[in-house]
Design brief:
Layout: H1 2-12, H2 14-19, H3 42-70, H4 73-86, H5 88-97, H6 101-116, H7 125-128, H8 138-144, E1 153-155, E2 159-161, H9 163-175, H10 184-205, H11 207-216, H12 220-236
Antiparallel strand pairs: 1-2
Length: 271
C-alpha cells in the first residue's frame, strides 16, 4: 500500500510536465480560445501550485537526476519505448470512442508488432514501417464529444487540470485494457512499472528545459497555465506537428522538449 501511494504521488507531478510538452493552441473545446480558460480559483490554485513546486524540487527532480546519471542512455531509450507501447491499448480504445477507426487500427497494430517483434515494446519496429500514433486519453475523448473543460484548477500532486480532464483521469483507470488483464500481482506490477517509471523517465528528459522555464518566467504559474491550455487543446485536435514549445509571446522559442515519450495515462488506484 505504501509503495502504491508513493508511485501515485510521483505520477501526479507528470501532468505539469505533460502540459508543457505540446505545441500551443486552444483549450476549452476544439473550437474555443485559450483565453476562455477561466481561473476563478487563482488565489487557491497558486497556493497549491507552490506546494507542488516544492514537491518537485525536493523529491521528483532529484530522483530524475539520479535516474539519468545512473541508467545508460541506451537503456533509458528502451524504457521509453516500452512505456509508449503500454499506452497503446488505451489509445486504441479512445480512438474508437472518438470515431477514429483508422487510428485505432494503427494503435492496435503498433502494440501487436512492438510487443512481439519489438521484444515487449523495448524496440519500435512499427515506426520503421510507417505505423506511428499519438497518445489519446479519455479527457480528450470527452472534449471531442463536446464536453467543455470547465474552470482551471490545480490539484495537490496532480497539478494542472479541469473538471473535464479530472473526470477523464478517473475514467481512464476503468477503461485501460492493460489494467484489466492478468489481475493480482501481475497487473499491479505492470501498473506500478508503467506509472512510477513513466514519471521519472519523462522528468529526466526535461530537467534543463523546465529549469530554464522556471528561471526565466516572470510568472511561472501563468506560464504553466498557458502551456497546459495550449497543450491540452493541441492533443484534442491531434495537432502535434512540432516538438517545439511556443509561448504566446514567443519568449522561449529556443526551448524544445523531448517528446519521445508522451507520458503515461494517469489513473486512480482503488483499494
Amino acid at each position: 500500500m505504501k509503495v502504491r501511494v508513493i508511485i501515485v504521488i510521483l505520477l501526479c507531478s507528470i501532468i505539469t510536465l505533460q502540459a508543457c510538452a505540446t505545441k500551443n493552441s486552444e483549450f476549452n473545446s476544439p473550437q474555443s480560445s485559450v483565453a476562455t480558460l477561466q481561473d476563478p480559483l487563482e488565489k487557491v490554485n497558486r497556493g497549491v501550485f507552490s506546494f507542488n513546486i516544492i514537491f518537485d524540487k525536493f523529491i521528483l527532480r532529484p530522483i530524475a537526476i539520479t535516474y539519468r546519471t545512473i541508467v545508460p542512455g541506451f537503456v533509458r531509450d528502451r524504457i521509453t519505448y516500452s512505456l509508449n507501447n503500454l499506452g497503446m491499448p488505451i489509445t486504441a480504445v479512445n480512438n474508437v470512442l472518438q470515431g477514429e477507426l483508422r487510428k485505432a487500427g494503427v494503435s492496435t497494430g503498433r502494440f501487436i508488432i512492438n510487443s512481439t517483434v519489438g521484444v515487449l515494446g523495448f524496440f519500435d519496429p512499427a515506426a520503421s514501417i510507417g505505423l506511428t500514433s499519438e497518445n489519446e486519453d479519455f479527457g480528450q475523448t470527452l472534449a471531442v464529444w463536446g464536453v467543455e473543460s470547465g474552470p482551471y484548477i490545480i490539484l495537490p500532486f496532480l497539478g494542472p487540470s479541469t473538471p473535464r480532464d479530472f473526470t477523464g483521469l478517473l475514467s481512464t483507470s476503468l477503461l485501460d485494457p492493460m489494467y484489466q488483464v492478468g489481475g493480482g500481482s501481475a497487473s499491479s506490477s505492470l501498473r506500478n512499472y508503467r506509472l512510477g517509471t513513466g514519471v521519472i523517465d519523462f522528468r529526466s528528459r526535461n530537467i534543463e528545459i523546465l529549469d530554464d522555464l522556471q528561471n526565466n518566467s516572470i510568472d511561472y504559474y501563468a506560464a504553466v497555465r498557458s502551456f497546459y491550455a495550449q497543450g491540452r487543446e493541441s492533443q484534442v485536435s491531434n495537432n502535434l506537428e512540432s516538438d517545439t514549445i511556443e509561448l504566446e509571446d514567443n519568449m522561449f522559442d529556443e526551448f524544445e522538449f523531448d517528446e519521445t515519450y508522451v507520458g503515461p495515462d494517469i489513473e486512480i488506484i482503488y483499494e
